[in-house]
Write a structure and sequence with these properties.
Helix content is 34%, strand content 22%. The protein is α+β, with helices and mostly antiparallel strands.
Length: 241
């Protein structure tokens, strides 16, 4: 078997048999990859590995690749970052669940994508560190993730503009179809694109505005990537925020 060292972010897990599981990671060396983890529920030896495989947890590992198997395995795996708040803050853990499901549904490539991986890895650390603006984080994440999925806004925002979802462009007047964001949502989209993640608390949105803008973002994503409609954690997110 060929071994390799890598970093990854946990997207999804699936129980396999009595004590094993399949883990889907976004990795720096091979895009999205699947791993078989044997004896994950065993408490013998080094103890249970379950704690490592929570949504959006960052890991560092040595993988084993076999041409005779559909999935890789781990020779060694450990935490890649100490998360001090995400596992214990219901708001942040809910956002992490949403982020993981979005990436699991939308990212299918098994080829390295350095910019996407760096954005996701950095987002985990940013979410864990932030103290203000947590309620805006999932909106910032979706707005900026579009850059790496191929449908980022293609021009600069101007005051009073609308946003054409089909063309991915800000427009001075409403497009001749229903697929566009209102002036309010277009301005909010630009705010999140230009905002440093450490300053999210400066974007003042109430619950109604957050829900409305999330709906607009999901329509935008849905036009370009139909798989977004399968994301179930949206409902939990809307309840928490």
């Amino acid at each position: 078997m060929k071994s390799y060292k890598a970093r990854g972010v946990v997207l999804h897990t699936l129980k396999y048999g009595d004590s094993s599981m399949v883990v889907h990671l976004l990795t720096d060396v091979g895009g999205r990859r699947s791993y078989m983890v044997q004896g994950v529920r065993s408490t013998r030896g080094r103890g249970s590995k379950l704690a490592l495989f929570q949504p959006m947890f960052a890991v560092e590992f040595e993988g084993l690749e076999s041409p005779r198997r559909q999935m890789d395995s781990f020779r060694e795996i450990r935490s890649g970052a100490v998360l001090r708040s995400v596992p214990f803050d219901v708001r942040k853990s809910t956002i992490a669940l949403f982020m993981a499901e979005v990436l699991y549904r939308l990212v299918r490539e098994s080829e390295p994508n350095g910019p996407l991986f760096d954005f996701v890895w950095g987002s985990v650390g940013a979410l864990d560190a932030m103290e203000e603006g947590v309620a805006n984080f999932h909106l910032w994440f979706l707005a900026n993730l579009s850059r790496f999925l191929g449908f980022y806004p293609g021009n600069a925002y101007t005051a009073g503009a609308f946003f054409d979802i089909r063309e991915g462009l800000y427009t001075k007047t409403p497009p001749p179809h229903a697929g566009y964001m209102s002036g309010e949502h277009a301005r909010t989209l630009d705010d999140f694109i230009r905002c440093d993640v450490r300053c999210l608390g400066e974007i003042g949105l109430n619950r109604r505005q957050r829900v409305g803008f999330l709906d607009a973002l999901l329509v935008y994503y849905g036009y370009h990537l139909d798989a977004i409609r399968a994301v179930q954690s949206v409902k939990i997110l809307q309840e928490v925020f």
